[in-house]
Amino acid sequence: FTQDNLFSAVHDKGFRTAISGYYCFEKLVPQSAVSFSYYTPGEDAEADNDVVEAATPFLQNSAIKLVLIHIDQVDYAGHHEGGPQSPNWNSAATRADNLLLFIANQIDLEKDTLVVFSDHGHIMAGGHGGQDPDILVEPFVIAGAAVKKGVQTEINMVDIAPTVSALLGVSIPA
User: Fold this and answer.
1) Cα distance between residue 63 and residue 16, in whole Å
2) Shortest CA distance to 107 belongs to which of 140, 59, 168?
């Protein structure tokens, strides 16, 4: 693994890290920089419940400074259950929102920071599209320590790692 990355920067600073999510992260992040992990081949609601359950002890361990939790069921609904036009999409989004609420309740937002983002959207029929705003414009929410409340701005995907790096006081990945 030759790419400079956030997990390695955090690990190199002497902090512990954790990932709970879809098994693709085993290949996306150098495992030498991951202190704790749970990976699943599942992408549906049951898999997401397992992912959040496995991540809960990570969130409660103050030695772990970076925890990535990958909730995948909305993407699954986009690819396999009819896309945003399907009632399955809204059901998946509601379940994902409930999991995010559970996660937020596991941390202390006076000292911790929660970052929520998506990597892409879906065309109405489901699946990936081209340059449509529905595909390219996605949510980014950050709350907690060192975050100004009520600020709304547009960011780019490449802003996420530098933002998290700054919050953790680690070097920004190239």
Assistant:
1) 6
2) 59
Closest CA to 74 of 90, 85, 50: 90
Tens digit of each residue's pLDDT (9 = 90 or more) over 127-159 = 887 787 777 888 899 999 989 999 998 899 899
Query: pTM here?
Result: 0.94
The amino acid that residue 121 corresponds to is: G
CA distances from 83 to 40, 89, 140 (A): 22, 6, 21
Residues in the chain: 174
How many whole angstroms separate alpha carbon 129 and alpha carbon 153? 24
Place of tokens 């103050």: 62
Residue 22's nearest CA partner among 66, 75, 98, 92 is: 75
